[in-house]
Structures
1.
Amino acid sequence: MTVKVGQQPVRASEGDRAATLQLIIALGRALQALERAVRPHLAECGLGLTEFAVLEVLYHKGALPLGAIRNRILVTGASTTYVVKKLEARGLIRRRAGAEDQRMVFGELTAKGRTLIDEVFPAHVERLQQAMAGLSVSQKRDASRLLRALSLHARRTTGEQITEDD
């Protein structure tokens, strides 16, 4: 594996190559296991993972432009529009034009959506805590710090814009 540092390609050591691949596998397996832990509860509540993610971001951040929702939940624009339309049809969120720029469309929770997420979110967090109970609080904080550093570096290498919230 060759990695560019500045303008100079640098050959990664075999140890780094193996550790990189092991980390990718561990991250993927951890994410799959966490999704398996929360998916049944969300399904009981009539929500998929992406639908829950949209409701959760609006719950914690308030009304947001659809593009900001897309960026926060890490799905494509078309998928965001599809999920927003489904949630809107169920009366859980509403779309509205921006006050300053009518072309900007915001998503926001309805009273029905807020009631649902008020009920679902505490149980969701409980399931996540159960699934992550194998780590101490200190280990969770260390993992969060390391994964944030990894995410920021990887996003910078792809030229992705980084914001204060990242």
Note: The chain has six helices and five strands.
2.
Amino acid sequence: MLDCPLRAKGEDRMKKGYKDLLAEAEALVEAVDVAEAARLHGASNVVFVDLRDPRERERDGTIPQGFSCPRGMLEFWIDPESPYHKPVFAEDKLFLFYCASGWRSALAAKTALEMGLENICHLEGGFTAWRDAGLPVEPVLPRVKA
């Protein structure tokens, strides 16, 4: 093992695991259940942000009218100083983040909050809970490579 100057000698354990990160996120970010998300769906002041990878979206579909933002691009798309900034994140709206099961969306919503988006929440149980509740799902066609 390489000697990392940031790690104390003999310390091989993670200081903070995913459960710790999720607990921190859940303490800061409101999780909305499927019934509340269904009530918010379609409102002009709400943006459903789909954090799932394009392959997940193509395989499983998406919540209609959702904005696709792969998790790996979130920070770059939120920051107005980034060359990758997406104007949707500068709008005065409620951003409802979702992933497959609610873990990535909890972490992403916490990050968005820390970056300055104030009106945020995430979907408890994620897309899976939405689909299992029989709520609308639309197909996502594979991108055609140029």
Note: The chain has a mean pLDDT of 93.
3.
Amino acid sequence: MHPIMIMFGSPFSRALLVGWRHQSLLGSGEPTLSWNHLGSRRPEGKAADQQSSTKIARDRYTSTVRVRTPQSQQSQGVSESQKRRGIIGCLLGAAVGDALGLPCEALSSNRQQKLYPQIDGHRFIFGRGMISDDTEHSCMTAQALIVSGGEPDRFSESFAWRLRWWLLSFPSAIGFATLRALFKLWAGFPPDKSGIFSAGNGPAMRSAILGVCYGDDLPRLRKLVQVSARITHTDPKAEWAALAVAAASHMSLSGEPSPQEFLATFRSALGEDAERAEELLDLLDRAARSAARGESTESFAESLGLKNGVSGYSYHTVPVALQTWLRQPNDFSSVLNAIRCGGDTDTIAAIVGGIIGARVGKEGIPPQWLERIWEWPRSMAWIEQVGERLARVCATGIPQQAVSVPVWALSLRSVGFTVVVLGHGFRRLFPPY
């Protein structure tokens, strides 16, 4: 049953009605949750109005006076302007990588080579690109950071509501675990109970921006990665892989680490989980050694048994993405090497693009790749505006309203996007095979 088809009086319908009432977590123009516990008895009449007004006032007061030490003061060796550049570069880089990789998604390396002998730009529709769920999740993560000021509990609530409304925009690309988790959110499960036991790469695809913003505050970063992951995926493997991407984006922002420096830093970031995450550490050690040898990304993927394409399993996606970054940390065009591996190409390229984008900024992304993304309402200018506002939040520690986006436009855009996706699927029925 689609989430729009609800029974009046169910926990879902109560959540839906309440969700439209206030905008304290999502910001301007977007509905959100105003009750802490879905399904709990709701006050009625004057008492309800008084309780609601009191809570809104308290939330606004809390978000105003809860001023933290600005991130620019906490960072070691990263200036405020450098972080701003990294945040914008991370978001735009993820979008460009996503758009470049999207036409090749689910193709094996061999079939991709036959359909697209040369990839040097966008090929989604008339030489232009569009973004998919990878970029959308990164933007929702950034928006939740803006309105929460990086406070994990508020971030969790805001991000969960963004995911709920995103589902109602009829996204054509959505992982099965994420879909089930969003149904649970709409059914009334809180964010810490909605996740599905899965080690898919959903959390990893949206975690690069977390590392850029809060990599200099490891306890907070680990908590943010944890709540972001567990909303949809509860397998610790998904969380650890997401933490690896966050650590990589932070190190990319801060400098040009050697492969072994990254591995040592990530092991330290895992803390007491390092022993349990030994399998991932071993895979990343292989990635680091491969990058140090200058081995191609395709060869490394083949050594992991991924000759026919990199799957959406986080322990496949993340080692390949990080090997690509470690091999060419300052060259944004290396996203093309990740795409050539086949499989979940948009997610791999989005992760690589976000990490390298944090290093090179908007200026280091080929202008033609940025300019030829055909998107609305989440245009490249809109994404850059999100980055600008998030940078101000990181600099001051004060939450702000989210950058508005017309909710009705998202569903309309999804219809057009789906038509193009179906066109690609139809084309794949024909030679060359």
Note: The longest helix spans residues 80-101.
